[in-house]
């Protein structure tokens, strides 16, 4: 018996979103549409000054919602009724407390220490009237994740351990993943790995190639088409599929409006995308992984898992933010046989 369907190791990030004017964006020296990693002093300055100006000038509603790739995936699994646990390091501040409360309200258990040196990680997202997002991200406490922080008992109690490539930017967090993956596989569990973003692949390509190789730590990996092409250094998607097949690992390759291709050895499964009006692209890959892993952990065929992933991604695409909305009834109407 498993206590959890999926345990996940990842960064705990809080998203602070607010509409801003073009002039206010320029006043703070932000490049429109850019994504900058910032340090703690800069993050504190922006939170104290920018959001104060927003309240005084534009008076918008600042939305504070939990984020993080692996946590997004667990949120979808929990919404479908799966048992999940999130393993990370959290800030010993209000954002850290709020993050844990939000995730646990969604049905995801949180396990990990509080960091008293670094504040909780957050991404300050300024949205101009044309819908363009400008992001300033402070990784915070979860970037300080140590191997000793990981509750390895929870890893052994989960059917699948899921993680994200964002951790590879931090040596101690990378070692935490390596030890957790080793413990999972030693316990007869499967390990799932999301490639996360092209910039992660550019910085850690050899490590990721090793992880998804025939003898690597990951049994399942998720990548969109651009990420997979970057990983295998090719513009030919057919070559991506062939290279994935050679590893013998389960590769889940999403292709946007073209759907997704699932590869396992000589087996190929294509799943069409669900057609919905697109409101937001945030967290679509995470949602797909959540739907796929939930059905996979419950023993369904790959085609059903892929369809579930596509439906969950469509649910998230039709609204703002990465959290699903009434997902159980949404998926039941579209995947009744499961």
Describe this structure in words.
The protein has 338 residues and is of the alpha/beta class. Helix 7 crosses helix 8 (225-232) and helix 11 (302-317) packs across helix 12 (327-334). The strands form 3 sheets. It has a 9-stranded mixed beta sheet, with helices on both faces. A 5-stranded mixed beta sheet has the order 3-10-9-2-4. It is built from 12 helices and 16 strands. The protein is globular, with a radius of gyration of 19 Å.
Q: What do the pLDDT scores average to?
A: 90
Give the low-confidence spans.
none
First and last CA, distance = 22 Å
The number of helical segments is: 12
Order of SSEs, N→C?
EEHEHEHEEHEEEEHEHEHEHHEEEHHH
Overall geometry comes to globular
Helix content: 40-55%
Structural class by helix and strand composition: alpha/beta
Number of strands: 16
How is the largest sheet built, in terms of strand order?
7-5-1-11-12-13-14-15-16
**Computed Rg:** 19 Å
Strand content: 15-25%
Largest sheet: 9 strands, mixed
Secondary-structure topology with pairs:
Elements: E1 4-9, E2 13-19, H1 22-27, E3 35-37, H2 40-58, E4 63-67, H3 69-79, E5 84-87, E6 90-91, H4 94-105, E7 108-111, E8 114-115, E9 121-127, E10 133-138, H5 152-156, E11 158-164, H6 171-186, E12 190-194, H7 198-211, E13 220-224, H8 225-232, H9 237-247, E14 250-254, E15 260-264, E16 267-271, H10 284-297, H11 302-317, H12 327-334
Parallel strand pairs: 1-5, 1-11, 2-9, 3-10, 5-7, 6-8, 11-12, 12-13, 13-14
Antiparallel strand pairs: 2-4, 9-10, 14-15, 15-16
Helix pairs in contact: 3-10, 7-8, 8-9, 10-11, 11-12
């Amino acid at each position: 018996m498993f206590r959890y369907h999926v345990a996940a190791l990842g960064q705990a990030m809080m998203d602070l979103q607010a509409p801003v004017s073009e002039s206010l964006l320029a006043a703070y020296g932000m490049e429109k549409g850019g994504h900058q990693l910032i340090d703690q002093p800069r993050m504190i300055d922006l939170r104290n000054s920018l959001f104060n100006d927003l309240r005084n000038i534009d008076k918008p509603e600042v939305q504070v919602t939990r984020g993080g790739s692996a946590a997004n995936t667990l949120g979808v699994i929990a919404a479908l009724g799966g048992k999940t646990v999130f393993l990370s390091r959290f800030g010993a501040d209000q954002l850290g407390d709020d993050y844990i409360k939000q995730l646990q309200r969604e049905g995801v258990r949180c396990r990990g220490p509080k960091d008293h040196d670094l504040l909780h990680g957050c991404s300050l997202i300024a949205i101009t009237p044309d819908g363009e997002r400008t992001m300033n991200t402070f990784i915070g406490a979860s970037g300080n994740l140590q191997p000793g922080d990981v509750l390895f008992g929870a890893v052994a109690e989960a059917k699948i351990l899921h993680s994200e490539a964002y951790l590879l930017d931090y040596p101690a967090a990378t070692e935490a993943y390596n030890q957790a993956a080793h413990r999972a596989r030693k316990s007869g569990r499967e390990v799932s790995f999301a490639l996360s973003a092209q910039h992660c692949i550019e910085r850690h390509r050899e490590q990721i190639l090793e992880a998804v190789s025939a003898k690597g730590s990951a049994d399942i990996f998720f990548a969109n088409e651009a990420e997979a092409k970057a990983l295998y250094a090719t513009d030919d998607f057919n070559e991506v599929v062939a290279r994935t097949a050679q590893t013998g690992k389960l590769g889940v390759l999403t292709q946007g409006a073209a759907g997704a291709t699932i590869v396992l050895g000589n087996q190929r499964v294509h799943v069409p995308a669900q057609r919905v009006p697109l409101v937001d692209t945030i967290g679509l890959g995470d949602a797909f992984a959540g739907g796929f892993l939930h059905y996979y952990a419950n023993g369904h065929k790959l085609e059903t898992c892929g369809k579930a992933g596509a439906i969950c991604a469509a649910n998230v695409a039709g609204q703002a933010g990465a959290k699903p909305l009434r997902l159980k009834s949404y998926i039941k109407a579209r995947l009744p046989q499961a």
